[in-house]
């Protein structure tokens, strides 16, 4: 009986302890909930204050590099290659010797032509003297026929001299052509023939290819639809045309994303649209002093096509909605976040240019907008965006006040 009473008392005591623990936990949770319900401080965001200004309008075009000049070097006389006078892959100047062909035969031909010329020239004085003699005797015994024959003989002698001199010139040209020279300054490639190979005049296989890389051409392509849209906007007065399209600067971005340091100029544009791709070609020319751009390299070109009065939205601060429209987040006068949509936008360097939906002094969020939604309260901090449009530079901090002494 006593054991039963003790067991019952122990169970009651254990229940009381558990109930106390449960009450304590409930009280703790209530305190935590009260703390969680406290208002969070506004999130700091970087903003730029927008101001309307005339900005350049640019378009991005894909392109390929091509050599400014290309020449496939071929022999103009036949023979055996006896010397290769250039280093493969090196730069050569105009007139530099590239190949030398065995010239013994051509030197002999020159000597033979010189002898033929001397022989022909030797007969001219005799023919001239003979003609002068018959001219004096034509009225005193010499017949007219003899006089005419002497005249013909002199003409033939002079013609033989001219023929021999022409043959000598041909022989000398062939001798000079045994040295194959560079037609312009450029960079050589691998020689396809070696010393001892027999080559023939005007053969189909080139000895090597010479390319001039400075300056260099960039072949760009643009859609005809964009061309028509551009002309319509200029005609409607929404866009200002460049004063001189031929001198419009063009900037390149290389395959590794680095901007090319030299600006290019428009060289020509194809006055026809491709029937298969619906594009037309534009060719630009760039200085290439370091041979940084090589033929066949892919590039992206930023071409200035005009200007317009509007506001710049850096690409880092803009997104596209499901309909492809440009969107960006702004801070209202009450420090609330709002999203604005822009139906019309144009490219201007590394930014988007818009003309509607913004006023001077509006604050565009350029950093920190990824984690906030519309209606959220934020603490705007003014900042600037550098020329590349990617790096946000916070304003310089003021000198910190000295710490208070305890």
Summarize the topology.
Layout: H1 2-36, E1 43-49, E2 53-73, E3 79-84, E4 91-92, E5 97-101, H2 104-137, H3 144-176, E6 179-181, E7 186-188, E8 198-199, E9 208-223, H4 224-236, E10 240-241, E11 249-253, E12 264-269, E13 279-286, E14 298-314, E15 318-320, E16 326-331, E17 337-342, E18 346-348, E19 351-354, E20 363-367, E21 378-382, E22 384-385, E23 392-393
Helix pairs in contact: 2-3
Domain Multidrug resistance protein MdtA-like C-terminal permuted SH3: 312-370
Coiled coil: 110-137
Organism: Rhizobium terricola
* Secondary-structure element order, N to C: HEEEEEHHEEEEHEEEEEEEEEEEEEE
**Low-confidence spans: pLDDT under 50, at least 5 residues?**
1-37, 396-406
Structural class: alpha+beta
Percentage beta strand: 25-35%
Helical region count?
Answer: 4
How many domain units? 3
| Second rung of CATH, namely the architecture of the largest domain | Beta Barrel
From the alpha-carbon coordinates, what is the Rg to the nearest angstrom?
44 Å
The mean pLDDT is 80
Level of helix content? 25-40%
CATH topology (fold) name of the largest domain:
Elongation Factor Tu (Ef-tu), domain 3
Distance between the termini: 71 Å
Top-tier CATH class of the largest domain: Mainly Beta
Largest beta-sheet characterization: 6 strands, mixed
CATH homologous group name of the largest domain:
Efflux pump adaptor protein, beta barrel domain
C-alpha geometry: elongated
Report the count of strand segments.
23
